[in-house]
Amino acid sequence: MSAPQHQEPVSFAFDEESEAQIVKILKRYPETKKASGVIPLLYVVQKQMGRQTGSAWVPRVAMDQVALRLGMAPIRVYEVASFYFMFNTKPIGRHHLQVCGTTPCWLRGSDEVLRACKDAGRLKGYGDTSEDGLFTLTEVECLGACVNAPILQVDDDYYEDLDYDSAVKLIEALKRGERPEPGSAKGRLCSAPEGGPETLLDIPLAEEK
Amino acid sequence: MAKVTVDGIEIEVPNGATVLQACEAAAKEIPRFCYHERLSVAGNCRMCLVEVEKAPKPVASCAYPVADGMKVFTDSPMVRNARRNVMEFLLINHPLDCPICDQGGECDLQDQATAYGGQGGRYREEKRAVKDKYLGPLVKTIMNRCIQCTRCVRFATEVAGVPELGATGRGEDMQIGTYVEKALTTELSGNLIDICPVGALTSRPYAYVARPWELRKTDSIDVLDATGTNIRVDTRGPEVVRILPRVNDDVNEEWMADRGRFAFDGLKRQRLDRPWVRKDGKLRQASWEEAFAVISEKMQGLKGDQVGAIAGDLVDAESAFALRALMRGLSSANTDCRQDGAAIDTSRRDFYLFNTGIAGIEEADALVIIGSNPRKEAPVLNARIRKRWASGALKVAHIGPKGLDLTYNTEHLGEGPAAIAGLMDGSLGFAETLKAASKPMVIVGRAALARPDGAAVLAAAWDLANAFGGLTPEWHGFNVLHLFGGQVGALDAGFVPGEGGRDVAGMLQGGLEALWLLGADNIEASAIPAGTFVVYQGHHGGKAAARADVILPGAAYTEKEGTYVSTEGRVQRGRLALFPPGEAKEDWRIIRAAGAALDVALDFDTLDALRERMVAFNPIFGAVDGRMAGGCADTAGPQAGGALGEAAFTLPISDYWLADAVSRASETMAQCSRIYNDPAPRLAAE
């Protein structure tokens, strides 16, 4: 697979909102160890790019800015940014569809979620960005929400307990510019059993006492 | 101290030592790739696994601290098995291209695979392919061969001080590179080739040139800067094919600057390989007899003060001493080796040496650099300063051009000599640092002495070192940083104006009938008065050679037995690695023969006799490989001679890659100069 060519912006500057976040982040670290803030700052960059351009990614010029801000060599920032999949070093679509393909999600039907993403989002497969620039599809490793498998992470939100239809519905809503409530598509609370409690029924709830 | 038993051998090692160091102390060989004793510990190649009693698994000895009573086994079945399997993993993605690999025959991976590896690989799948990276004109990369030991990353970051290399990506996609393609901006890039344990980083000029077993290896000394780097000259047949550093912990550790390492192709080009004589205004080829006949005709009978000699920057002490003897035999006191006109006071040796010593830098706690850029003038010495700075114990300030990147943080005190006065009267903040320092150092660049107020700068630098306790019987903090390997040797050989003699400027003013230039290639032809008979003796035709009336072809530093004195005053011997080209001869022999032609009795017929004469003249020449170390016995400074000027200090080396006659003839260096001086960084891969 040859990497698609993309246009790097010529410059990057933190906006006001980002600056406020940076002040907050840097307070967590002593001055001599401020390089520890590299990951939070890269997130700040990615968020700002999302706000400004509709594509949440980290351009190289922005990494240079992070390096400058943290007093570290640019290559050390490149190393971190290229190590973690959570940082997009290439432009992506407005919504980042991240399908968990690890065993529990796969057993619970992540293939169906993937199919829904391809069909509804008009995507060819993992790594693809739709022609309208709305979606980018990525396969991710375990998102740590196996009890609510399968999971589709859209940007920062977890959509859980999906199947083909609910995933299509979710993507159609995103296309209309809506933002459905994250969480279980089946309406369960966190990871509570589907359709109400099934065990420990003989113990009265506190309010019933 | 901790008592450790290695394979039944009981040894004591300091607390905090690693198991690997303990094993080495017990003379047990531990294979390794990522571990390098001069770099930080990474612990990622896993080749150095050993068995430790009561440890459930083999441990990586390079990163495992010793404990008292520890029992280590380096040759148990578990260890052998572990190493064999680590080796199998390392070789999974390593191409089997040893027959076409330049590292073949001197490759750590090849050797250790033979010694510790298994019978063959069981891997039948696709090997990964990695795109080659562009690291500049000197280092060639074949990244498929990389085993990701990260030695190069650590070297660039820690020793060279240019954190530009890194490991990007993760897992199988991890790659070593600069991310943004560009040439590494360091003068020490050749060392990456040495520390790479495989053939991923190899020498571009040496690509497909020779195999190590074809080479004749000669230990010698680098003269292209004044560090006195210990080198090994590898020759095959009649040419130098590469130059490598030798380990000398007191001088260069195991590093080497790029100019010394890669400029050798200049030794083959633009050489003076036969005598030339000017006839009817044109230089024509001649025989040695004709050349000496012309010299004898023109110079015999001249009065002493009508004759003069200037020595260049790369001359060996023998030829400087021989030429001095010849001049004195002609009763001339006009000898000078300071083409740049540096106001060097030769009345005492410590007025012109790097007295602290290169290894001594590692004791210093404050440093003021005056009118020098050690990164360009002596890159290996600069790496030593950086090493001390990185340990946190050294504070550095510099006086000179603003915006100098020395690879470590410095406080800029000012551009001109006024800053020295500012330190003396305490008006600059760095004076407090100097006051608090127990071993302060002052480095004054040679170029800072080559100005009209040079003598005053020299005296002021001395006073500065003295005022802050840098000159004590235990510690000598006054340092002059010379630029080239022949400069100190010529001073030690007394190649300075004798009683009533003229210096370089005086000789060029006129009044000389004959001028002898010994490798003095920085003299502008137009600066020599018309009508002066000029003899140029040297190996490369510099600017002055075109002006010469007689050219005598000499030997370069790889082609003769020569003594060189480094900036720290270390007397070292360069050795003959190959014979001079054509009819060129060793320089002292040429001068000896000229003495015979001019009826001057020179009392040496052999190199040994010449060296005996030199030791008699200056006993320092007897202390080969040593240097006069120690403190400052007499704090009385050099003669001031005038007041400090106002002018800002300028740096002597504007183009590192083309700073001397050899590198100006080198194609490799010309290419470096083009690429590194290009204001637009090269972004495209080759």
Distance between the termini of chain A: 64 Å
Rg for CA atoms of chain A: 20 Å
Structural class of chain B: alpha/beta
CATH architecture of the largest domain in chain B: 3-Layer(aba) Sandwich
Question: Class of the largest domain in chain B, according to the CATH hierarchy?
Answer: Alpha Beta
Oligomer description: heterodimer
Report the sheet-strand fraction of chain A: 5-15%
Helicity of chain B, as a percent range: 25-40%
Mean pLDDT of chain B: 93
Q: And the CATH topology of the largest domain in chain A? A: Glutaredoxin
CATH architecture of the largest domain in chain A: 3-Layer(aba) Sandwich
Instruction: Outline the biggest β-sheet of chain B.
Output: 7 strands, mixed
Q: Which stretches of chain B are low in confidence, meaning pLDDT under 50 for 5 or more residues running?
A: none
Find the count of extended strands of chain B (DSSP E, 2+ residues).
26
CATH class of the largest domain in chain A: Alpha Beta
> Quick one: overall form of chain A?
globular
Walk across the major sheet of chain A and give the strand order. 2-1-3-4-5
Organism (chain B): Teichococcus oryzae
GO molecular function, one term (chain B): oxidoreductase activity, acting on NAD(P)H
Enzyme class (chain B): translocase
Keywords (chain B): 2Fe-2S, 4Fe-4S, Iron, Iron-sulfur, Metal-binding, NAD, Oxidoreductase, Quinone, Translocase
Q: What is this entry, summarized?
A:
Chain A is α/β, with parallel strands linked by helices. Chain A has helices at residues 16-26, 38-53, 60-70, 74-83, 103-107, 110-121, 164-175, and strands at 95-100, 135-140, 152-154, 157-160, 183-184.
Walk me through this protein's architecture.
- The complex is a heterodimer of chains A (209) and B (686).
- Chain A has 209 residues and is of the alpha/beta class.
- Chain A is built from seven helices and five strands.
- In chain A, β4 (157-160), α7 (164-175) and β5 (183-184) form a beta-alpha-beta unit.
- In chain A, α3 (60-70) packs across α4 and α6 (110-121) runs parallel beside α7 (164-175).
- Chain B is an alpha/beta fold.
- Chain B has four domains: 2-92, Roll (Ubiquitin-like (UB roll)), CATH 3.10.20; 98-267, Alpha-Beta Plaits (2-Layer Sandwich); 276-344 and 487-622, Rossmann fold (3-Layer(aba) Sandwich), CATH 3.40.50; 355-481, Dimethylsulfoxide Reductase, domain 2 (3-Layer(aba) Sandwich).
- Helix content of chain B is 25%, strand content 17%.
- Chain B is built from 20 helices and 26 strands.
- Chain B has a seven-stranded mixed sheet with strand order 14-13-24-23-22-15-16, covered by helices on one side. In chain B, strands 2-1-5-3-4 form a five-stranded mixed sheet, with helices on both faces. In chain B, strands 19-18-17-20-21 form a five-stranded parallel sheet.
- In chain B, α11 runs parallel beside α14 (454-467).
- The two termini of chain B are 53 Å apart.
- Chain B: This is NADH-quinone oxidoreductase.
- Chain B: Its cofactor is [4Fe-4S] cluster; [2Fe-2S] cluster.
- Chain B: Residues 2-78 form the 2Fe-2S ferredoxin-type domain.
